[in-house]
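A quick aside before the break. I want you to see a complete sequence-to-structure record at least once, exactly as it would be stored in a machine-readable document. Don't worry about memorizing anything.
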Amino acid sequence: MVESGVKWMNDKAEQAGSPSGPPKKQRGRPPIHDGVTNATRYVRRERGRMEGMRPVNIRKVILWVFNSLDSELVFARDAPCAGAWSMLQWAKKDADSRDLFFKNYVVKLLPSRAQMETEEAQADDDGKHLAETIKRLLGIADAAQRAGAQGDAGEPGISAEGAGRGAEG
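That is the input. The structure line, written in tokens, reads:
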């Protein structure tokens, strides 16, 4: 009786070892010891998530890579898009790649001459126009207050002459 049980177990072991078709797929979480680390699974999941993202402005990508180039605490999930992460990996690869990144891409972040001239013109204004506008508004408010005090109902109002006089009022 014992021998038949042993024979039965041996038959089952031989059947298990013989190919009886493709292995069945397991549902649920993969086994813990499948040779893939949790970090690898995380990176794959993040790459999949980034591939579905919208296109990003190239200036934003270059600026992100520029700011992340010397940081050790930057992860794929921090990148604005998958291309930005790839560009960062390329720029970090070696000194030649880093030089090319600065020569070919960082230059695009610099403002054009027209933009710099516009900014200088705005800085030269010194708020003169703003000061004139404030004086005019204070004159209108003064005139409205005087007209309100002279009105029959005692409610403040703006007369045509007070609005037109401006700062002189």
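Two observations worth writing down. The chain has eight helices and no strands. The chain has a mean pLDDT of 74. We'll return to this after the break.
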